[in-house]
């Protein structure tokens, strides 16, 4: 799926993505990058709202897992099982999150379990930066359950 198609999917399936102005910028061998407008996501201190930071990181990671399933030809429902975030410094400009591509072995295990058992788990790390340095680091454990064709 293209970044435009992934953005449309997010806006359709997860309305919050549209409300915060999230858009998929790029999907590559490094991961999936999303961005959005600062003005719609700032808090009263003139920095990015912590809830928006969490949303950008979570949605980038969820979209990456969804795209991996689609790329493998596996229709699956993807959900966040557990998510943890560390806020390292304030963000005062446009939010950009990069969900890092999992290591090849972890990705292969996830897809194999999804194919063979109908369920797979995958850990994804996402980072938001400020002036090129990490400002927030998210680690999410995602579960994908294969959807049966009818």
Automatic annotation (TrEMBL):
<dbReference type="InterPro" id="IPR029069">
    <property type="entry name" value="HotDog_dom_sf"/>
</dbReference>
<protein>
    <submittedName>
        <fullName>Thioesterase domain-containing protein</fullName>
    </submittedName>
</protein>
<feature type="domain" description="Thioesterase putative">
    <location>
        <begin position="5"/>
        <end position="145"/>
    </location>
</feature>
<dbReference type="Pfam" id="PF09500">
    <property type="entry name" value="YiiD_C"/>
</dbReference>
<dbReference type="InterPro" id="IPR012660">
    <property type="entry name" value="YiiD_C"/>
</dbReference>
